[in-house]
User: Which sequence fits this backbone?
């Protein structure tokens, strides 16, 4: 019996599998349907789990199915699986960005419980955060099973409405790139002030890592910022420059642009799915 099955064995599936095993899941209770032989071999070598080239075999007796394929492949994959999804229906946990529950439901048997998840790239190192949304009616036992999978990659949070996933995508999904960009620019500015490039990159990278650790370990973001900022000191001088340059408004516009693009992509995927049925 496979308690949790994955359709697709890419990087995010690997991150979730590794996390589940770290948390005590038994390897024989995990199964992956993956068409690429080299990927299947790597999964067996690295994790000792069950793999199969046939996605339908991966579904057998699963209580939860993690849909971990590219959004453009969703319609084809779920059409192929529809006949293999039997009562009692498993929970479908989709980590495919932008594919809405209503569109997933069009491709699944009636009454199938569906949850959308938006993990982020730090899940690859067990430090991710995942936004979750399910339509009303998800059984508490099913909810708990979803939380076990999400927790394997880091923290998770349930959202009140499905459109909130567009904001989650903009904030935590795309967010690592924003911090990396800031660190890159800090290093570049330090080079312009005379530091060697390798030294500037090391300092920027380690500062990014350390600041993340401080933010994670306690205290509000405002408190953490205040602890670094002495009145009349160097940090205050830099923060005033950010403020004068419209940093807050720029961040708001950037996040809004990302959330809008997420909604646009979801609408495009919905149209593609409707056209494929």
Assistant:
């Amino acid at each position: 019996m496979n308690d949790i099955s994955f359709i697709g064995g890419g990087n995010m599936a690997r991150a979730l599998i590794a996390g589940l095993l770290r948390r005590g899941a038994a390897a024989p209770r995990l199964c992956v349907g993956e068409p690429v032989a080299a990927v299947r071999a790597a999964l067996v070598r690295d994790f000792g789990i069950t793999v199969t080239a046939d996605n339908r075999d991966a579904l057998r007796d699963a209580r939860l199915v993690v849909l971990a394929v590219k959004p453009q492949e969703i319609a084809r994959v779920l059409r192929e699986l529809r006949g293999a999804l039997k009562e009692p229906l498993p929970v479908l946990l989709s980590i495919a960005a932008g594919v809405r529950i209503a569109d997933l439901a069009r491709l699944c048997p009636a009454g199938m419980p569906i949850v959308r998840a938006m993990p982020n790239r730090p899940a690859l190192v067990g430090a991710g955060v995942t936004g979750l949304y399910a339509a009303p009616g998800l059984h508490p036992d099913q909810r708990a099973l979803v939380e076990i999978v999400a927790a394997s990659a880091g923290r998770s949070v349930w959202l009140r409405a499905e459109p909130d996933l567009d904001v989650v995508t903009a904030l935590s999904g795309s967010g690592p790139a924003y911090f990396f960009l800031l660190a890159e620019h800090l290093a570049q500015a330090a080079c312009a002030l005379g530091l060697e490039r390798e030294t500037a990159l090391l300092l920027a990278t380690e500062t990014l890592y350390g600041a993340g650790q401080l933010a994670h370990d306690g205290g509000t973001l405002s408190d953490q910022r205040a602890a670094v900022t002495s009145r009349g000191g160097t940090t205050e001088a830099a923060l005033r420059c950010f403020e004068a340059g419209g940093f807050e408004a720029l961040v708001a516009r950037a996040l809004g642009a990302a959330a809008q693009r997420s909604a646009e992509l979801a609408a495009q995927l919905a149209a593609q799915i409707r056209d494929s049925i």
